[in-house]
Amino acid sequence: MLDKLMAEAGENLADAGATCILICANTMHLCIDAVKKVVNIPVIHIAEATSNSILEKNIKKVALLGTKYTMEKDFFIDILTSFGIETIIPEQEERDLIHNVIYNELASGIIDSISKEKYLIIIDKLIKSGAEGIILGCTEIPLLIQQRDVSVPVFDTTKIHANAAFELVK
């Protein structure tokens, strides 16, 4: 069902004269292949753009934060792996917390300092586990976490994705 809706949206954008397509949600990249099949314009994959940014910093191991779907399904991690980037994700309980904060707080504009502290504890644990960078793999996470909060490079997929589109069409 989602593949069909996303493919139709892609066709509509191409028919309207779009020169490229961005799927502006990390999780919805689950449907990117359906969109690519029906259009003849570039569809920029958020994980590919993010992988390029990671490699520019000579980083080989990152932690991925996002919705449970983004952290647990292979559509994002497989792209990172294809670029030679090792990816770690938080433990199950931590993934649940990250996911719930996204849906129950950030998506509603709630920025809670306690949730931020919990995220930073998870991030610190991931850094201690070898993460050289942290992927903010959900459009809402940068509302809570910024580079100044973290001791290793942070990769804001939303900004990276938008910049990749700008570079393509400029």
From TrEMBL:
EC class: isomerase
Keyword Isomerase found: yes
Domain of life: Bacteria
InterPro entries (UniProt xref): Asp/Glu/hydantoin_racemase (IPR015942), Asp/Glu_race (IPR001920), Asp/Glu_racemase_AS_2 (IPR033134), Asp_race (IPR004380)
Pfam families the UniProt entry points to: Asp_Glu_race (PF01177)
Keywords in alphabetical order: Isomerase
GO function terms (MF aspect): isomerase activity
EC number, UniProt record: 5.1.1.-
Classification via NCBIfam families: asp_race (TIGR00035)
Family: Belongs to the aspartate/glutamate racemases family.
Protein name: Amino acid racemase
Organism in which the protein naturally occurs: Polaribacter ponticola
